[in-house]
From TrEMBL:
Transmembrane domains' residue ranges: 41-62, 68-88, 109-131
Keyword field: Membrane, Transmembrane, Transmembrane helix
The protein's name in its UniProt record: TIGR02611 family protein
Lyase keyword on record: no
UniProt xrefs under NCBIfam families: TIGR02611 family protein
């Protein structure tokens, strides 16, 4: 028994009279929300708020060990589902990250080690400042007391 390809309504790939059966795709949840009065605006607002919260929380997490940049990119991906500017920004960010990682991959071991040490030093400084300012814990003093 042969398989008959189905075309989505409005899909121009299936020409009239070429023997293909045209069927309508079931509407997705976004289409059902947009079909309601005010649904399109409500959907954009909800997605905008969720995406912005994800981006801000990701940026807060960036200096700390964990998935900070991953959450930022996920927030951009959420925004990109409704906003074309977010889609363009996400594509730009992908290209920039790929260019930086490709550049670092082409460097010799010394440059890679220096880049890693600088990244580690920045992360350690951010953790030290955060602990000192928020909890009053001075890791440098604790390390000195431990060593001496």
């Amino acid at each position: 028994m042969g398989v008959i390809p189905m075309a989505v309504a409005g899909d121009n790939r299936a020409g009239a009279g070429d023997g293909q059966v045209e069927a309508e795709a079931a509407p997705g949840w976004r289409d059902r929300v947009r079909a309601r009065r005010g649904g399109h605006l409500a959907l954009r607002v909800v997605i905008g708020v969720i995406g912005c919260v994800m981006i801000v929380s990701g940026l807060i997490m960036v200096p700390f060990p964990g998935p900070g940049w991953l959450v930022v990119f996920a927030g951009l991906a959420v925004l990109a589902t409704e906003f074309p500017w977010a889609s363009r920004l996400l594509e730009f960010a992908k290209r920039a990250v790929l260019a930086a990682t490709d550049w670092l991959r082409r460097q010799n071991w010394f440059v890679r080690v220096v880049a890693s040490l600088l990244t580690l030093a920045c992360a350690a400084a951010i953790v030290w400042v955060t602990l000192k300012l928020t909890m009053g814990i001075d890791l440098v003093q604790m390390a000195r007391a431990f060593v001496l």
